[in-house]
Design brief:
The protein is of the alpha/beta class and 270 residues long. It has 2 domains: 164 residues, Rossmann fold; 94 residues, ProC C-terminal domain-like fold, CATH 1.10.3730.10. An 8-stranded mixed sheet has the order 3-2-1-4-5-6-7-8, sandwiched between helices. It contains 12 helices and 8 strands. It is elongated.
Length: 270
Amino acid sequence: MRDINKIGLVGGGQMGEALVRGMISGGVLTPSDIIIAEPDSHRREHMHSTYNINTTADPGEACSFASIIILAVKPQIMPLVLDSYKDILTKEHLVISIAAGITLSALEDGLSPGIPIIRVMPNTPALVLAGISALSGNNSVHKKDMNAALHIFSAVGECVEVAENLLDAVTGLSGSGPGYVFTFIEAMIDGGVLAGIPRPIAEKLALHTVFGSAKLGIESGEPAAVLKGKVTSPGGTTIAGLQVLEKAGIRGTIMSAIEEATHRSKELGK
């Protein structure tokens, strides 16, 4: 595995902060081995005071400090970031991008030739170290580079390695998925209130139902259809509720949402 002795993050937003928290709490690195390159002085102060890491507004300082550079910025500003880093990143660096939709070829075009680059699609549960990240590397990435990236992102959850042509679909499913899940949770809460349950209790019931169901799915290893069948007794309450969801086309709607989010991810990469 490539040595993970110094890491620089470009961007001190929520996902960058989640990675810092995960790497420190998971023992991947100590605070003194991490630097954040962030133009906003308030975010720099927050990151330094909260995690005792190094901070800078200078791209050159981050690149001379770290051999692994994580681009934790929004897709819309990636061209400006690449322009700032093009002349200071070398083949000795490993560059990791978490910007949705920005392809490996676009990243290669924006940087010097031959730099190993890995695209990662994490999701927001990484903020509580329970995310899922999908990774794909360019032709300059060696096994040691990918292993290093997998080690880093496993600090904030689970990881899978996929072909790059699947990353837009990953974005539509797990990247955007928390938005779908929270919409469903919100609807469950409102349904509980409609049925007469006080909102605070409805919130607790809905959140723990979703959490427990996901945990059961992960730990049992059984298909979702099998687990659904175990709670769906003949003529019971669950099948009555499921009939309403099926009449409303919930499956097709969710599938279409993922399809549309995948399409939008592709648009962002153009």
